[in-house]
Amino acid sequence: MKTFKLLLALLALACLSIGSSWAHGYRGSVGVYIGGPYVGPYWGPAWAYPPPYYYPPRVVVVPQEPPPVYIEQQEAAPATSAPVEQQYWYYCGSAKAYYPYVKECPDGWQKVLPQPAR
Questions:
Q1: Largest Cα–Cα distance in the chain?
Q2: What number is the average pLDDT over the span 17-34?
Q3: What does pTM read for this prediction?
């Protein structure tokens, strides 16, 4: 019975020491070591990897596309069935001048296609 109380006391001491090791970021272990020539109880801190460091997420900046540009098309000229009439100048041969510079022509007016000045 005395041995059982001693083992219980050692187990309680091991648990208390493990609690303080947890406060410093270590993990402790209590168990039975079986390996090699030694077989017996084990207690104490156990080495563990530190927790991983999580980096903040990467900021991704996506440029905003410019708004679409709409170009208004002009309305198409209405299709007419009648052909476009030719514009003429009216020449008076006896006055050797064109209408409206000469108001009356005794010989009659001649239709002349317009021509650029030379």
A1: 156
A2: 56
A3: 0.29
Which residue matches tokens 């493990």? 18
Nearest to 25 by CA among 54, 49, 52: 49
Tens digits of per-residue pLDDT, 28-83?
A: 566 665 665 666 676 666 666 777 888 899 999 999 999 999 988 888 777 666 66
Q: Please count the other Cβ atoms lying within 10 Å of the Cβ belonging to residue 26.
A: 15
Angstrom CA distances, 107 to 57, 72, 93, stand at 97, 53, 7
Residues 87 and 99: their CA atoms lie apart, in Å, by 13
Integer Cα distance of 98 and 114 in angstroms? 11
Listing from the earlier edge strand, what are the strands of the sheet with 89-92?
97-98, 89-92, 109-112
Structure tokens, 105: 């022509």
Which residues share a beta bridge with 43? Answer: 30
